[in-house]
Structures are given as structure tokens and as C-alpha cells.
Amino acid sequence: MAAALVSHTFAISPMPKPHINLPPKTLEIPRSCSVKLESLKDVCKQGKLAAAAELFSSLFVDRNRIPAGFCLDEAYAVMTELCATVRALSPAQQIHAHMVTSGVLSDSVFLNTKLVMMYGKCGAVEDAGKVFDKMPHRTTFTWNGMIGAWISGGDYLKALRLYRDMRVCGVSLDAYTFPCVLKGCGATGDLPTGVEIHGLAIKHGCSSTGFVVNALVSMYSKCGDLCGARRLFDTVTERDDVVLWNSMILAYSGCGYAAEALSAYRDMQSEGVAGNTYTFVAALQACEEESFRSLGQQIHASVLRSGCHLDVYVANALLAFYARIGDMTHAANIFQNMDQRDHVSWNTMLTGLAQNGFYTDVLSLFKDALEARLRPDQVSVLSVAMAAGRLGNLLIGKEVHAYAVKHGLDGDLQVGNTLLDMYSKCSSVVYMSRVFDRMDIKDLVSRTTVIAGHAQNNCCVKALELFREAQTGGDEIDPLMLGIILLACRGLKSNSHVKQVHAYIIRRGISDLMLQNNLVDVYGECGLVPYAAGVFELVEAKDVVTWTSLITCYTNNGLAKEALELFNQMKHSGLDPDFVVLVSLLSAVTSFSSLKKGMEIHGFLVRKGIEIDGSILNSLVDMYASCGSLDSSCKLFNSFRNSDDLTLWTSMINAYGIHGHGAAAIDLFERMEKANLFPDHVTFLALLQACSHAGLIDEGKKYFEAMESKYALEPWPEHYVCLVDLLGRANHLGEAFRYVQTMRTEPGAEVWCALLSACRIHSNEELGDRAAEELLKLNPANPGNYVLVSNIYASNRRWKEVDRVRMRMKENELRKNPGCSWMEAGNKIHAFTARDHSHPQSDEIYQKLTEITEKLEHEGGYIAQTSSVLHDVAQEDKASLLYAHSERLAIAYGLITTSDGLPIRITKNLRVCGDCHRFCELVSKLYERELIIRDAKRFHHFRHGSCSCGNYW
């Protein structure tokens, strides 16, 4: 309708100049003219611009019938008022032109004032100013109209300057002057002028006028003087004016005093003042926090009772309220039931969905908005770009970007920053850089976002370059940007860069807790454990993240014992661990096979009511399996067996595999396929390892081939390692070597290591020499590889080659990792190394071990298998070396400290040798104790003289 009104063209002709030679008193106004004038007034009151234009034009059809003394000021006045009401600028200009050609404006203060007010309300402030400047005489109404025009146009300083000119000219003020000027004071924060005007209002006797009081309350609140606003409010004796209450509620709400605003709303209700649209909107705006959810819902109920729910402004406020508290279901219901929606309605809904994570719904609603012919604005673009980024939908993101460019919205700083973030999350670094380069205005957010985008997309070197540019350009560097740069350093694993950033932080004197936590985390990721611990000690107010960072650092760097000790300190500090630290601790427990600690963490999760699903559930399944309690893993898995989490199924397949239950692993894999879950590379890796530990050759080859033929998954080098290990240990060395030769990528050290191990077991010197040569060529810095090569030479009594390999180790300053075993006793982890005497009960342990060995020799027929000792020493020395292997010391300590009937659980960092395997079988039989030993590859469950591995490991 508004468009139709604006486009309407008046078909009116200029009125001839009045015949001044006839005295007006002798003229009679034709009845038809007076009737039309009254009709014009009625039509104008109804807001019908087209009909009013037609009536107005009809007054000039027959010029001869218009009496000379007939004054048309009233007709012009009602038409200017109508144009102002409907804000129709084009018709307004035509009325003005008609006045000029009619000659009625020359000395008419009344009509000129009407024109000033009309142009002001139509938004043509400059036109209003031109009329105002040409007026030789002005009234208070004229000055008020011009001041109001500047206020409506948002030029508050010009309004205040005009007010001062008005004072200088000695123009008297009235009650309508004060609200306009006070609004300008509030908008500019000019409290001194506001106070001055307050004094003038008192002087002129207007301080008790309702709309003046409301303007004063609003001015004081916007100038930050809430106390002044409240004192003024309290001086009003009769507070039955809803506008006054609205002013006070808005004052509190606008200054962030939500509780006070809602208290004022309740007081208003208790005094029996009925609220209106503005009341509900102001009160709902105050319900910003979750704690006000109930009160907001009560306001919603009041809206429904009052019938104001049809008002688009109230509906928009309700949408914003429910979006703020995250209740998008209620917001959607309100939106769907709105009879009328404006830009604010659509944008509020789009923003609410985006901020509450309903990104797919954002795109769907945006499509509906376009179909409803909504022209997206800056707010719409921000919401859709955010959703596209979170969804990683680059195509939609580019379309939004194109729209922003086409309509000139990309020049907006906030839009530009959101586009940067969108491209970053869509992993499109090139487009992100282009957006950044095209931005005319950049702020700290822009630079931080583009640096973060590069760091998060593994363009860490570029992130560091941009950071240096920001430094040299004198840009602001804040803790958030430094945290992102630390992320880039972590991606590069660059110890020197981390230290440089740390030094920069110290020089700048930044003591931000989040930054300190990041330093602990990044030092840990880079393997600089002492530095991480040092930063941790310097943190005065440690939070959960601080403790979690160092615990994770210890866990990831193989210091599980230190991680568990730190966890105990954390509990004593009174802090409860969060989700992240518990997952990290479960990883530490897994590396130690500490079942008791694992069960404690599981119990903690249950007591705290933490939901056991996702990564927590997977970690628990893996922990129980890695601690030798396969039954507990099965119980957990079966309680969630209907889960569609592939990681959970993979964890359980791996659990069966490391315990040697290859057939069970295959059965579970087939059940997973029937449940329409598609395996990934990790699933197949767990399955092939299960086949390898159980010696299932045909099954292993079958599933290896199915990866590509059935699931189009190209095998990783790790899959070849499993297959080579499976075939090699079954003495299918030729076939294993053929698989190595057919690899699509160059065989890595792990593949040659698996082949070499099999060659040692089956004494294949020729192929072993080839594998040894390739292994040392590919990974000359790994001491374990030298030990393996040395062992294969020693097993064939090639002592010169053994000396040569050991000499190379010495030249490269490499040392063999000693055999080490751990066991848990007395709520403590006890570590033992071969021939170790550092334990406090060392004498008792060796005495017990001698007793055990003698019993096995006399009652079990134990004879040391010295072939397991790959050293060029005498037979008796070889036997002596075997007797002090680390797992035997742990077994002796276990028999000393644990109760009869309880299993002894031991973790070893190397594979169990053949002699120790036989030793454990006899201990389980003669001492009637179950031994659960986890070596570097798998679990061995020794019961009644036999092992679960079936002597295949």
C-alpha cells in the first residue's frame, strides 16, 4: 500500500491568485466547496491518500467557481498532515509545489510550519531546513518542528545547536520543545544540557507534564544517571501513566539492570496499570538470562491474556526472548502463528537458530524467507554465513558471499569478519585470504580470525607470517591472538617458536589464565614436559583446564604414573575433573593396565552422574580390555550394542583381538555389517590385528582384499604391517614378501620390522638380511630396530654382525630401551626392570624369586631355555640373565603382596620371551594363581598351566 501511495501522482492545477479587489466579506463560499472540504478532512483522517488527492484536485477543476475569499489553508494543512502521517515524500513535494505556484506561502507562517513538520516526518530533513531558513517569521511550533526533524533524522547535534539558536533568539519554549531536545541529549549523552533543560521545564511549569517526565526519565537513563531517573520517577505521585512505567522499565533494561527492570514491571502490575505493547517488549528485553526463563514465560502468558500477541513488535520480542534462552521450539511456534512478519521477525528467527546450533534449519528458513520475497540484509547474511561455515557448506557460503558483494554488504566490517570465519571453517584458505585482502577496514577480530583460519587449516607457517605482519604494523596483540599463534606452533611442533611466543608473553607482562593453560598444552604437545610443568607451577589460580592440560601432557608423553599422581593432587585441591581429563586419565590407566584406577574413574563417572556415551564409553571399553578385564568390556558394549557409533564397535573388535579372540572379533565385525554400519580404515586395522594374534591366515587375507573390493578403502601401510606379521609368523614368508613388493607406496620401516621379526622366528637368514638392511636405512635413529637386527644375527650365532650393529648404535649414541614391567599393588604402581635392585623390598623379592624358580625346577620340571638369550656368553650366564627378567620380579612381588586367589596383573613394554612364557605357565599351575600379562603386542592369560595365546604370539 505504501508503495502505491508513494507512486501516486496528483493531477492538480495551480490555483489562480485571489481576486483581492473584492472584499472577502461580500463572498459566499459555494456549498459544494465546503462539502468537498469536509469530505477531504474525513478521507485524510482515514489515511486514504489516493482518495484525498482526488478530492483535493476536484477543488480546482472549475476555477471560476472558487470564490476569491475562499481560504485553502485548511485544505493544504490536512493534505500535508496526511503526507506526513503516511510518509509519502513524492506527494508531499507536489503539495509544496502547488502551494508555491498558488502564492499562499509568502507570508503564511502556519503553512510553512506545516511544511517543515511534513518534510521532517517524511525523512527529508534537508528540505525541511530549506523551508525553515526562508521563513521570515517563525513561531515556537516552527522551531519545535525543525528540531523534531533533525531528531527524526538522527542528527542530534544539529538539533541541539538549533535549540541553542532558539534560546538566543528569545523564542519562548513550550511543553513540546522539551521532549525533542531531551531525546537529543540522551542520544548524545549530554547530561549537563539535559539537566539544564530539566531546570527550564521546572521554570516553565512543565516538569509534571506526563510526556515531559517520560522524556526526562529516558534522558537520565541514556546518559547513565539511573539514580536521577529513579528519583524523578519517585517524585510522580499519580503513576497511572503506562508510558511513564515503560520509560522506567526501558531505562533499567537499556542499562543492563535486568532484575531492576523486571522489579519495576512487577510494581507496575501491582499498582494496577495495564501494560501495552511497549511494556511487554521492554520487559521481555530484560529477560536476558536463563534465570529469568520463568518470568519471561509469565510475561508471555500475560501477552496472550491481553490479546497483544497479534502485535508484530511483541511477537518479535517473544522470539528474541526464547532464542536467548535456547528454546527454539517455542520460538518456532510463535513464528509460525504470526499473522504478520517483518524483517525483524525473520532475522530474529534466523539469528536464534544460528546461535543455538540449528544450522540446517537456518538454511531452510532462509529459503522460505526468499520465497516470501524478503530482501536479505546484513543480519540475514551474518546468520546464513555463520550456518554455512558451521556446516562446512562451501557452496552456500559462496552464494551468500556473492549476494553480499552484489548488494554492497561485503564492505561492512562485521559481514567481512563473518565471511572470514565461514571460509575458515569450510577449509577454504584461498577464499578467506581474498576476503581479507579486499577488506578496506580491518580490526583485531579480522586479523585474529584470518590467523586462526590458517592455523586451524594446517597453514601454520602462513599464520606465523601474518602474526609477524601484525606485530610490525603496530596492530594490537591480545591474549586470544597469542593463543592462536600457540596453536600454529603446536601444528608445526616447533619448540623454538613456542619458546619465542612464551618470551613475548613474558615481555608484555600478559598473565592471562587461558594463555597460560595454552602454554602448558602446547609445551606438552611439543614434548617439552619440563617446560609444561614449569608453566603449570607458575599459575597461581589453577582451574580445571590447567590441571587437565598437564595431566594430558604427561599421558601423551608416556608419563602415565605422573599423570595419575597429578590427578590425585587435583582431587585434593577440591576441583572436580571434567570430561576431557577423565578421557585422558583413562588413556593413562590403559597404558599402565591399572584396573583398580580404571574402576575408580568409572565409579567417579557414575557418582557424578556423567553420561557414559561417545568418547567416554569408547575409552572405558578400551580401558577394561587393556587392563585385562575383557568381560567388563563386553558388558559395557552389550549395554550399548544398539549404538550406531562405529568407534564403539571398533573398540570392541580391538578388545577381542588383543586378547587373542580372533573368531569373536570376526563375528562382531559381521554383526556390525548386518547392522548397516560401514567399517573404516581403523576398523579393518583392528580386525586384521585380531586375525594376526589368532593366526587366522585365510580370514586375514579375505578381509584385507575386501577393503578395496567391497568398501573401496585403499589399505594404509599399517594394514600391510598386520598382513605381513600374520603371514610371517605363520612361516608364509615368501607370500608376506610378495605383499611387501606389491605395496603402492614405498614400504616403511614398520613393514620391514614385521618381516624381520618373522625371519628371526623362522631363521630365514637371506630374507632377514634384506629386511635388516632396509630397516636400518629407513629408520636409523630407532634403537629398537638395531636391537631387532642384532637379535636376528645373534639367533644365527653371527656374533661379528652383532658387534657391528651394536657399534653403529654406540656411534649414533642410541641406547636400547630396557625391559620394564609394571604392576599395581597397595594403590600404587610398582615398576621393575631386568636385574633391578632399586625397589625398597628388593631383597625380599629376589629371595621369593629364588624360591619360585626352585619350586618350578623340582615340581614342574622347569629348565631354562637359554636360546632366548641372544648374547655371546656362557650357558650358566644366560640362565642367570633369564632369572632376572622384569616380569619375573613383578610376579615374585605379586605373590608377596596379593591375596591368594586374586589374579596378578602385569604390563610389560617388550614381548614376552619364550622362557618367561614357560615360567609363567608353570607359576599359574603350581601356585594356582591366574597371571594376566600384557606385553608389547597382546594379552596372555595364564591359567592352570596354559596360556590363552596357545603359544602363538
From TrEMBL:
Residue stretches of each PPR repeat: 139-173, 241-275, 342-376, 543-577, 645-679, 680-710
For this protein, what is any one GO molecular function term? Answer: mRNA binding
Under Pfam families, the record lists: DYW_deaminase (PF14432), E_motif (PF20431), Eplus_motif (PF20430), PPR (PF01535), PPR_2 (PF13041)
**Record InterPro entries:** DYW_dom, E2_motif, E_motif, PPR_At4g14850-like_plant, PPR_rpt, TPR-like_helical_dom_sf
Record flagged with keyword Repeat: yes
Q: Which family does it belong to?
A: Belongs to the PPR family. PCMP-E subfamily. Belongs to the PPR family. PCMP-H subfamily.
Name this protein carries in UniProt: DYW domain-containing protein
